[in-house]
Amino acid sequence: MRMKLAATAAIALTALPLAASAEGNEVNIYSYRQAYLLEPLLNAFEQETGIEANVVFAKKGLAERLQREGRNSPADVVMTVDISRLNELVERDLVQGVDSDVLEKNVPESLRHPDGKWFGLTTRARLIYTSKERVEEGEITTYEQLADDKWDNRICTRSGKHPYNIALISSMIAHHGEAETETWLRGVKDNLARKPQGGDRDQIKAIAEGVCDVSIGNSYYYGNMLQDENQRPAAEAVRLVFPNADGRGTHINISGIALTKSAPNRENAIKLMEFLSSPEAQGIYAEANTEYPANPNVEPTGLVAEWGEIHPDSLSLQEIAEKRNAAVKLVDRVDFDGE
Ligand code: FE
């Protein structure tokens, strides 16, 4: 595997050794996912197929870059997290549909674009974390209850505008409609112990420090904190709640992959996509970041397995993408991040 770190798009353009080559036995990946997650997978892929996988890593700007490069782009696939980023590629018309029996068998319908323009490879649940000390087990079991008066001044969260929260709010709109979701979101805002700030890990720390008792966050942050000596004590102060497990299921989001419109190595790219959805790759990929395999035939391993069976909301990620604009407007209207 050849890797390049692209800190900014400008640097990346000059540092990129990738040349669009239809003949080379290779596949070129633009990735928002970190190197340590992809390395074992791509090594296995190379061994199995003899196709060299080249990766450009970046923190942002890959969609803009693809757009700028147009049909001359060397990129075959984009790997990223969050439905909003995958959907952005579709909206900018940067990706093409893939018609593959293997992908359709390995990736459930709710986790892929209806025309194959993106495929989920791992899932992550958006959970409620509660203080082990100050909140009884079973005291809160649903997202809806976050708006209850009993949590007044007791909830922490990152910005309402963050894609993770936008996707959760989108799912609420899909299930309850806009008016009811607005009432709910105002209720959650009224319960905040502080202005939305930081990332999901910071909310776990805030619970450990007694700033708040309840927060919202993705499953893998908790898992990754438990595995980090310095952050473990904070994680150990909180309990995981899988919201709505007894009802419609817990809201999940995905990391995924999409085939670029201009893909110079289209066949190899589809082989890579199929490989990444296979049981062999799914186990490695999900465990590397304490996520869930998208392939339902692959059991979660490690910490995630210890959390027990998950009952995910079956709402399609495509539907969540379609509610995104409404969710963004709602967050603005209730001034969720305001004082
Ligand atoms: Fe994250």
TrEMBL record:
It comes from the Bacteria. InterPro entries: Ferric-bd. Pfam families: SBP_bac_6. Residues 1-22 form the signal peptide. CDD domains: PBP2_FutA1_ilke. Keywords: Signal. Gene3D superfamilies: Periplasmic binding protein-like II. Belongs to the bacterial solute-binding protein 1 family. This is Fe(3+) ABC transporter substrate-binding protein.
